[in-house]
From TrEMBL:
The keyword Transmembrane does not apply. Residues 1-125 form the Phosphomannose isomerase type I catalytic domain. SUPFAM superfamilies: RmlC-like cupins (SSF51182). This is mannose-6-phosphate isomerase. It catalyses: D-mannose 6-phosphate = D-fructose 6-phosphate. Pathway: Nucleotide-sugar biosynthesis; GDP-alpha-D-mannose biosynthesis; alpha-D-mannose 1-phosphate from D-fructose 6-phosphate: step 1/2. InterPro entries: Man6P_Isoase-1, Mannose-6-P_Isomerase, Pmannose_isomerase-type1_CS, PMI_typeI_cat, RmlC-like_jellyroll, RmlC_Cupin_sf. It comes from Anopheles sundaicus. Belongs to the mannose-6-phosphate isomerase type 1 family. It is an enzyme of class 5 (isomerase). Pfam families: PMI_typeI_cat (PF20511). Its EC number is 5.3.1.8. The keyword Zinc applies. Signal peptide: none annotated.
Length: 260
């Protein structure tokens, strides 16, 4: 509703926009991407149409498309854990699944916090993940002895293998693991902690979704207004709460890994 920064920004640019209190206003796109081109305030034409009509005059290039896409996001419930493909991967995905991957572009992006902002971004340090697997018995059991042995041996493949094991675990195994952690957290007398509070928050919103367990593998970041994170190709991340501006290559290609 009206608390959304996106809603306020959109309303400031349109006298006709009526913000409804019971509807979410989560994203405002400013660009010419096929999935959501901006419109000209003067005549309502799509920005993509205007650029294609005379690309040299509008953007100083004959390419016919802006090389970037700007978004404003207002997040009150976590967005999906995701990665963006590199250029070669994006071209392949676009050829094979054009209905899902709408363009052949990569999607490096920069997110700048407008308010206090929470995100998961990139893998935690090796030792930190190893410690969490040992301290969280349910997760260690899900990983299996072979993965835990790799951590003990300081094998460089331990982290990707562990996250791969997580992503390929059966739904029943994921449910057993998450429900076990949730039950232990609900009944334990331990004090509130940052990780415990985040787990219970995501569990309340997403239940036994595999993405809930990503908090044990990915860095949990708190940004202040004006601080930023850069996300290159194949860096797993999820925006959890707050408002931000994103600037990225002109693409909407996303491979999701939970919290959906």
């Amino acid at each position: 509703g009206s608390d959304s920064f996106v809603a306020k920004l959109a309303q400031a640019n349109s006298d006709q926009l009526e913000v409804k209190s019971d509807l979410p206003y989560a994203e405002l796109w400013m660009g010419d991407h096929v999935s959501g081109p901006a419109t000209l305030k003067t005549d309502g034409r799509g920005l993509d149409e205007v650029i294609r009509a005379d690309p040299t005059a509008t953007i100083g290039s004959s390419a016919g498309q802006l090389p970037f896409l700007l978004k404003v996001l207002s997040i009150r419930k976590a967005l999906s854990v995701q990665v963006h493909p590199n250029k070669i991967e994006a071209e392949k995905l676009h050829r094979q699944f054009p209905d899902i991957y709408k363009d052949p572009n990569h999607k490096p992006e920069l997110a700048i916090a407008l308010t206090d902002f929470e995100a998961l971004c990139g893998f935690r340090p090796y030792e930190e993940i190893e410690r969490m697997l040992h301290e969280t018995a349910e997760l260690g059991q899900l990983m299996g002895t072979d993965v835990l042995t790799k951590f003990q041996a300081k094998d460089s493949s331990a982290v990707p293998d562990a996250y791969g094991r997580l992503m390929h675990s059966t739904p029943d195994a994921i449910t057993q693991c998450i429900e076990g952690i949730a039950e232990r957290m609900r009944t334990a007398s331990s004090e509130s902690s940052e990780l415990r509070d985040l787990f219970l928050r995501l569990y309340a919103d997403f239940g036994c979704d595999v993405g809930v367990l990503s908090i044990y593998f990915l860095n949990y970041l708190h940004l202040k207004p004006g601080q930023a994170i850069f996300l290159e190709a194949n860096v797993p991340h999820a925006y959890l709460d707050g408002d931000c501006v994103e600037c990225m290559a002109c693409s909407d290609n996303v491979v999701r890994a939970g919290l959906t």
